[in-house]
Write a structure and sequence with these properties.
Blueprint: H1 2-24, E1 26-31, H2 39-54, E2 59-64, H3 69-78, E3 83-87, H4 88-96, E4 109-119, E5 122-125, E6 141-143, H5 150-161, E7 170-172, H6 176-184, E8 190-192, H7 200-207, E9 212-214, H8 219-226, E10 233-237, E11 249-261, H9 266-277, H10 280-286, H11 308-316
Parallel strand pairs: 1-2, 1-3, 6-7, 6-8
Antiparallel strand pairs: 3-11, 4-11, 5-8, 5-9, 10-11
Length: about 325
């Protein structure tokens, strides 16, 4: 009887301890995009960093794949993700209630930090290339990205800027790896794969001998695109970045940034921001795109107001914060 009582007390204590420990855990889901791009490894890397560095404080963070920025906005609003990586274009539209978010503004959206430039990669089979610019996608079977993704929206914004719509192409809605696979099999002429450089799927395209190339964006095309979506800037991908690619690629980019909802705890977001910037070497090893991150670039291209926790950290670090990024709730 005594042994049974001791065993019962041990089991109850164990259950109570586990329950208390579970209450202390705070889980952060980081919404990213499809696994073939840059959002996913960066998000997973941040999750691993925060879990490793803040485990003793009960923090667990994981990156989750998604359809990209548009779905990520939805996940934030529903509370199904606590953090999300967003394209500058999509974040700006959501916060201001413009573009695809006209009439459904997301006023509670907040930014934490710039992450890296989202570099446009319009790829096309060599047999379909005429001018070498993005105008060549007209009349071709072309993947604009998964439906409801940031890739789809940025691709359509760029197309509008050069007077094209989906009626001018044969649209497909594929993820990055599936796009390259379909091109390899001859089922697709090309696709849009915006991400940080280098993009794994683009590296695979060149390395595996797919006869295709990344298209250039001319100065005139960039100017025209920015007349309707003024978030893009010139970006040159140096020769040698991708296998067998010996010339510079003259493309364009926009900013990617880490976002959250204003309801997230200020001290927790402060701690996440601080830990991220105190361990940038860890992130640099995750993906070369993360090397764009520094306190000097922390607010590059960010148009959505900061979360109070991130704002507090940047103030402590002496970062020059534009008035428009000051949290409205402060």
């Amino acid at each position: 009887m005594k042994k049974r009582l001791l065993l019962l007390l041990f089991v109850c204590s164990f259950i109570m301890l586990a329950s208390c420990n579970n209450k202390d855990y705070q889980y952060f889901s980081i919404a990213t995009a499809s696994t073939g791009g840059t959002y996913y490894p960066i998000g997973v890397g941040m999750g691993n960093l925060w879990t490793e560095e803040l485990m003793d404080q009960g923090i667990r963070a994981t990156g989750q794949s998604s359809a990209g920025s548009v779905e990520n906005i939805d996940l934030l609003q529903k509370g199904e993700a606590q953090l999300a990586i967003l394209q500058g274009l999509i974040g700006d539209q959501a916060f201001n209630g413009t573009g695809i978010y006209e009439g459904r503004v997301y006023e509670d959206l907040r930014s934490i930090t710039f992450l890296w430039p989202n570099v446009e990669h319009f790829v096309l089979q060599n047999s379909q290339i005429e001018t070498g610019t993005i105008a060549d996608i007209e009349g071709k079977s072309f993947s604009v990205g998964p439906q409801a993704s940031g890739t789809e929206q940025s691709t359509l914004a760029i197309m509008r800027g050069i007077d094209l719509t989906t009626a001018d192409i044969q649209p497909e809605y594929l993820g990055y790896d599936d796009t390259i696979s379909a091109m390899r099999d001859g089922r697709l002429h090309g696709g849009s794969l915006p991400a940080g450089v280098p993009v794994t799927a683009i590296t695979d395209m060149y390395a595996s001998g797919v006869r295709a190339d990344v298209l250039d964006v001319s100065d005139e095309q960039l100017e025209s695109i920015n007349q309707s979506a003024n978030v893009f800037f010139r970006y040159i991908i140096p020769a040698g970045t991708y296998p067998r690619k010996e010339e510079d690629i003259h493309t364009i980019a926009q900013s990617n940034f880490l976002a959250t909802d204003k309801e997230q705890d200020e001290e927790m977001v402060y701690l996440l921001t601080k830990t991220l910037y105190e361990n940038l070497d860890f992130m640099y090893e995750v993906h070369s795109s993360a090397r764009e991150m520094s306190l000097d670039t922390a607010l590059n291209g960010v148009s959505v107001p900061l979360h109070p926790g991130a704002y507090k950290y940047y103030q402590e670090q002496g970062v020059d914060i534009p008035d428009e990024l000051r949290p409205p709730e402060l």
